[in-house]
Specification:
- Helix content is 47%, strand content 8%.
- It is built from nine helices and two strands; from the N terminus they run ββααααααααα.
- It has a two-stranded antiparallel sheet with strand order 1-2.
- A hairpin with a 6-residue loop joins β1 and β2.
- α2 runs antiparallel to α5.
Length: 231
C-alpha cells in the first residue's frame, strides 16, 4: 500500500538520531549523510521523495541489483509517485523486467541503455489505452521489453515474432479477467506472463497478495487472482 506518513517504503515510524551517518537511499542507492531513517533502517533521499513517477522508475531500476521483477514492481508501486492507476505502469513493466533480466547477467551498461529506451517508447502509450484502443498498456510493456532484449526492428523476423507473441499472450490473459481496468492487477498479470515465458530463476509468482485494493474503488475483490482480505 501507499504510506501517507512514516517511511514511504514500509510505513514504520521515522527515527531521528543525534548524529548523522552514511545512509544508502532505498531508491537511487546513492549515499547521503542523514540522521533520520525508519525503524527498519530504510532511508529515502529528498530527491527521491519528490521525483515524478517515470523518473523514480528509471532511477530505481537502474540502481537496483534485484533479480525479481515482482519485488522491483511492488517496491515502486508503494511510492506515492506511482498512483493507483496511470500511464506510469506502461513504463514500470518493461523497466522492472529489463532490470531483473540484466541484473541476472551482470550487464549494468546494457541495463541502463535499455531502460532509457523503454521509457522513451512507453511514454508514447497514452493513459486509458485499455479502454479507448482495445489494448492494455501493460501488454504493450511486455512487447517493449522483448523488443529491447532481442533488438527487434520492424524488419526483424524471429525477434519481431517473439515480441508480438508475448504482447498478444499477455493481452489475452489480461482481457480474460475482464474490466474494469486495474493497473495493479494488469501489472502483476503482465509480469507473471514474462516470468513464465522466460523462467526468471524459477521465481515464485503464484502467491502474490495485492496490497493496494483499498485504494481501488473498482476492485473486483474475489474475482481478482491477487485479492486478499488481509490488505
Amino acid at each position: 500500500m501507499i504510506y501517507k506518513s512514516g517511511c514511504c517504503v514500509c510505513g514504520k515510524n521515522l527515527v531521528y538520531g543525534n548524529k548523522s551517518e552514511n545512509l544508502h537511499c532505498f531508491y537511487c542507492n546513492e549515499i547521503f549523510q542523514s540522521n533520520v531513517k525508519c525503524a527498519d533502517n530504510h532511508y529515502v533521499c529528498d530527491r527521491c521523495h519528490s521525483l515524478s513517477a517515470n523518473e523514480l522508475i528509471q532511477n530505481y531500476c537502474i540502481a537496483s541489483k534485484l533479480t525479481n521483477p515482482l519485488d522491483l514492481a511492488i517496491n515502486l508501486m508503494k511510492h506515492k509517485a506511482i498512483k493507483m492507476h496511470g500511464p506510469e505502469h506502461h513504463f514500470l513493466i518493461p523497466a522492472v523486467l529489463l532490470a531483473a533480466y540484466y541484473n541476472q547477467m551482470g550487464r549494468d551498461k546494457d541495463k541502463k541503455e535499455k531502460i532509457l529506451q523503454a521509457r522513451s517508447r512507453a511514454e508514447k502509450i497514452l493513459g486509458g489505452f485499455c479502454g479507448t484502443h482495445g489494448t492494455c498498456g501493460a501488454a504493450i510493456g511486455l512487447g517493449i521489453f522483448v523488443s529491447l532484449i532481442r533488438d527487434a526492428t520492424p524488419l526483424s523476423e524471429n525477434e519481431w515474432k517473439e515480441s508480438n507473441l508475448l504482447t498478444s499472450k499477455g493481452l489475452a490473459i489480461i482481457a480474460n479477467y475482464g474490466g474494469p481496468r486495474c493497473c495493479k492487477r494488469n501489472t502483476f498479470l503482465a509480469i507473471n506472463t514474462a516470468i513464465e515465458h522466460y523462467n526468471f530463476d524459477h521465481i515464485d509468482h503464484k502467491n502474490i497478495e495485492c496490497e493496494f485494493n483499498t485504494l481501488n474503488n473498482e476492485c473486483k475483490k474475489d474475482a481478482c487472482p491477487f485479492f486478499s482480505e488481509k490488505n
